[in-house]
Amino acid sequence: MINRIIAIALNSIRLAIRSRLVVCLLLILLVTIIGLPISIKGDGTFAGKATILLFYTLGLTVVILGASTMWSACSSISQEVAGRQIQLVAVKPVSALEIWLGKWLGILIMNAVLLLISSVTVYSLLMMEVRKAGLDERETKALYNEVLVGRRSIEPREESVHGKAHARIEHLVEAGKIPPELKNDETYFLEMEKRMKAATHVVGAGKTKQWIFDVPKSFNTKKAMAIRYRFSVSTRDRTPVSGMWKAGTIDSQANFTINSESAMDGIHLLYIPSDAITPGEPAVITFSNTETDKKNSAVFAQTNGIELMNKASSFAANYIRSIIVLFCHLALVAALGLTLGSIFSFPVATFCTCALIVLSLSVHYFTVLVGDDTHVVCHSHGHSHPEPTAWNELTTDFVKSIEKYIAPSMRYKPLDKLADGILVSSSFTVGAILLLGLLYPAIMAVISTFLIRTRELALPKGHT
Q: 18, 101, 446, 459 — which has fewest CB within 10 A?
């Protein structure tokens, strides 16, 4: 069986080489990798340039490979059925499963070679740019601590406002500010809960905010540690916010103190010493807004507003794991194209594959958008929102049902992590291999095998 699968895979590769597909793709990829960083300008820093080189160049490389993978996979079986060639191999001792696996393996081998060449080229160009840049000590430290690194990110414990929301509604009812029927209104309660949760991310002038992080025992405090936070000032003139940061444990909450003078809105990084936090013990991070102007509040982002970061991996290892995850995405696209190519003709299979990919991305985007608390800041005026229509409920249920099946695969997005210097962990990589590279393709292989067996492969012209 293995020999037959390998023979089909090698035959697919030979056909691709003869059609000059591989050579054309390689040239397109090399032009993209070399030309894109030249045409796109960053924020003026080398770290920004490195981020562009990693995210956009690798991202466009995967898009090009994904498009070629979809085209090759959709045509691989459907074109042979249309040309009445598949019946020459779709007989004993070659089974339908062996045909599918052989085609899939051939596409994977071509993708592996092209992705390997592309990723090595990107990495080499990046290292060459680092050597040519002539960075000073501060810039070099920032580059290797913020971009060319794999940092473990720990988020704080989630602050529950469930009880406070109930208490607030009861208080408003007793004060006569809202109708009594809103006390048991689920929609109004959710609005109140979201509003109060948003309020917990606001630190007014002279106020203090505290976060608790559950630090694992594996947290290596000997390597670079930092607090990364995102906030924007609340005033229209964007007046800078000054504050004081403290880091420590529950028993000693001020092992480290630093003033963040004139911190502008955006993303900031504060390095903390190794003795400020103890592995295996909860860490306490405190921010005090030292502004005297009461209007000048610091509003932390509700998503990734503050993170505790620690170097956990070298950039090279993080880069390799990211490439493996990207390869798993290509394996899934190949499996999807082969499956639809087993059902439809080449044009229809290509259209359906594109439609499914676009639908999956759109559904995931809108689900995240609707479910993101940062987009919902309610202002009720004492009245609940109108009941959703039947059409709204139907479309919402449809989107959620699709999202339930595609959400697991959407978790594996390594380029965001890689370009941001976030760890692409071994467990993350193994999960992508098992789900994207094995489980989903295995399900599609079973479906395709059944369809190939039940499909008439030798119909006369005009009946395919």
A: 18
